[in-house]
Amino acid sequence: MSLTSKQRAHLRKLAHHLKPVVLVGSDGVTPAVLDSVMDAFNTRELLKVKLQESAPLDVRDAAGAISEALTDVHAVQTIGRTAVLYRADPDDPEIRLPSKGR
Fold first, then answer.
1. How far apart are CA 63 and CA 69, in angstroms?
2. What domains can be seen in the chain, in order of their start residue?
């Protein structure tokens, strides 16, 4: 599943007030970072990940690496050193995305 531009815009609006809950440090996207992201997705569907100055990756590369490594995780937005990630709750989604209509 990919997100439409309308759905990404909706998620960006919802993420605006959020604070980063996962930090990527000098080791980059490690299994520990992926575990932290999955733990965060256990309690929320939308989260921000912040790259510290010492991170070896670009924010887009880090967001892409996380979304590729984890099932059904979508990179919504990257701005500065922060990435917004989305994963719908498989059992009871709280966020209702706009339809994919034409």
1. 10
2. 5-86 (3.30.110.60)
